[in-house]
Amino acid sequence: MIHSLAIAGLLLCANNSSENRGVAVYDSLQTYINHRKAEFNNIPEERKEQLDAFADYITSRVQSNRPVRLNFICTHNSRRSHMGQIWAAVAANAYNVDRVHTYSGGTEATAFNPRAVAALRRAGLTINQTTTDDNRIYHVTYSKHAMPITSFSKVYDHAPNPKRDFAAIMTCSSADKACPAVPGADQRFAITYEDPKAFDGTDKEAAMYDERCAQIARELLYAFSKVKK
């Protein structure tokens, strides 16, 4: 099944890229984006330094007319790395940064967690589940004018993820420690987030997933706002 999933993702790997940046997003999502942009001053200065370095990498690729391949990596590719992949695609669209391709992966494969899916839906993204196996495929869209992002759990170097010429963004401290070097990556960034999994099954579950979703959206929108074209 994973082989067929990888092929499906590979066929849609351009969905986050190049040709249709700056398209109008869903109204509810635009409202969410506007709220996150208004929170840039809430990002700590030390965190901004990390995000500025990430933005500089994207700028260097854009200004040299090279594709920007961003692979967001956490341990299980179930929550934070998916959010990173999706919000990076949304942010690239929001700031009209072309030739951005976003991916996600884990040090192991599990499944795109339904709690994370629910938080992204609450943010205004449209997400359709297309399979019912343990590692389900989801198609994520931010605009009726853009192709969907195909999301399912995979190891960071499995198809459709790139093998070389990409930036690895480590979104959890465990993956950061487990992968001090990511084969094929020409740059590596440790932009880690607290895991909302700690609140699964509690009365704070939805709030903490929403908080993490908003943080990742806010910080990636900030980073793309700093890209010089």
CATH-level-2 architecture? 3-Layer(aba) Sandwich
- Look at the structure and give the mean pLDDT: 92
CATH topology: Rossmann fold
CATH classification, class level: Alpha Beta
Let me know the number of strands.
7
Q: What proportion strand? A: 15-25%
Per DSSP, the total helix count is: 7
Order of helices and strands: HHHEHEHEEEEHEH
Oligomer: single chain
User: How much is the radius of gyration in Å?
Assistant: 16 Å
What number of domains?
1
Structural class: alpha/beta
C-alpha geometry: globular
Unreliable stretches: 1-15
- The neighbouring-strand order within the major sheet is 2-1-6-7
Q: Report the helical percentage.
A: 25-40%
Distance between the termini: 40 Å
